[in-house]
Amino acid sequence: MLKVLIVDDEYLARIELTRLLSMHADIEIVGEAEDGHQALELLKKTSVDLVFVDIQMPEMDGLEFAKQAESEQFHLVFCTAFSEHAVDAFELNAFDYIVKPIMPDRLEAVLNKVRLVQESHDETESDDIQCLPDNHGLLLKFGSDYKIVRINEIFRFESLGNHVAVYSDSGKSYLHISLSKVEKRLDPTLFFKASRSDIVRVDQIEKIEEGMASGSLQVHMNNGQEIDVSRRQVQLLRKVFSIDSF
């Protein structure tokens, strides 16, 4: 069950979002707020998984709320009629962004993405962590569209702050998750952690050369990307491609 908080100064907007969310059996609306101040007070009393927040509100707007809220405790989704705020929203590590009027299919896509991350988090917290199968699909956003990308189509994961960039033949997308959590779900025989910021798919490595730093290496991927391998990972990489691997 996903616990949801709705933050919007417009009563009708809250009613409409409540109606759309009520169509999903795993959603529980635990509170509503008319501005950022009220929302912050509610967060002190109630644990939530997902917050839908408008940007333009009196007293405290959505952007200021995002700056003050401990958003690592929940997923933050901005809902607004003003798409020009998208850059500001994602600079504040928003999980996603919905332009009003909210379309049911767009809302469902956001909820599915939250469910996927939540499921991954719950599983990584368990004692028995299982690698995702190579045909497991991830719902990723490319521009304004969403696409399911299989693990076997992904050739690189790159840590970028609180997000992970995902590189595939479909392009570049993002997951709101840490690289360490991604690593725990990947098959180590298929993926190699080149450094603290990069994980690459082994069968997509075309060649390996000496790196710029002493004792380092650089892998060249089939798509032309060049990725540095940290010195502490060099021996592991050599082992992956050694005769002893057979």
From TrEMBL:
Residues annotated as domain Response regulatory: 3-115
Endpoints of the signal sequence: none
Pfam family, one: LytTR
Gene3D superfamilies: 3.40.50.2300, LytTr DNA-binding domain
HTH LytTR-type domain mapped to chain residues: 138-243
GO molecular function terms listed in the Swiss-Prot or TrEMBL record: DNA binding
SUPFAM superfamilies hit by this protein: CheY-like
Keywords: Phosphoprotein, Two-component regulatory system
Keyword Phosphoprotein included in the entry's annotation: yes
Positions of modified residues (4-aspartylphosphate): D54
GO biological process: phosphorelay signal transduction system
InterPro entries, per the entry: CheY-like_superfamily (IPR011006), LytTR_DNA-bd_dom (IPR007492), Sig_transdc_resp-reg_receiver (IPR001789), ST_Response_Regulator (IPR052048)
Name used for this protein in its record: Response regulator transcription factor
Organism of provenance: Shewanella hanedai (Alteromonas hanedai)
Lineage of the organism: Bacteria, Pseudomonadati, Pseudomonadota, Gammaproteobacteria, Alteromonadales
